[in-house]
Amino acid sequence: MKYDDASWHYGGQFPKESPIEYGGTHIALFMKWCFAKGWAGEFHLAEQPEDVQRVNQGEMSATEFLFKHCDGKFGDEDLNEEGNHFASEYYTDHYLQDYSNFAAGMAYTRPEADHDFAKLTAMIDQKFAAFARQNGNSSKPFWKFW
User: How far apart are CA 129 and CA 63, in angstroms?
Assistant: First the structure.
């Protein structure tokens, strides 16, 4: 399942002076948050473990990772089961609006580095906490105890 694609954003009303990578900034920031939670997909952990680690350590931007390894696309293969459980509900239904409110005019016009990732993390953490409460304090199925 594809959650998002930068190419869906850099057409139409997209600012002409912005590089196409800005169409994926919101995707990359969510992916960065997921990677920090340990939710990188098996493919990335097997094929690009060093770059996943570099994103987590701030040595590589998540935007660079998104375009280098995912062709600007974000789908279920990019996350593990736990990450997909959350993303399938939150990203598809609420994240874009939350990001738009958070970014306040920065969407499509500013690079990832100009976003306050700590503030975005706090916002998504709150959304995840509510999601976890609603889903029995875990995004794992009840029969998985480990």
Answer: 25
Share of the chain above pLDDT 90, in %: 79
CA distances from 12 to 8, 51, 55 (A): 9, 32, 30
Q: CA 10 to CA 26: how far, in whole Å?
A: 12
Place of tokens 């939350």: 98
Q: What are the boundaries of each domain within the chain?
A: 2-134
Highest mean pLDDT among 2-16, 113-127, 129-143: 113-127
Handedness of CA 80, 85, 86, 90 (dihedral sign): positive
Q: Which residues contact 50 (CB under 8 A, 6 or more apart)?
A: none
Helix (H) or strand (E) holding 4: strand 2-5
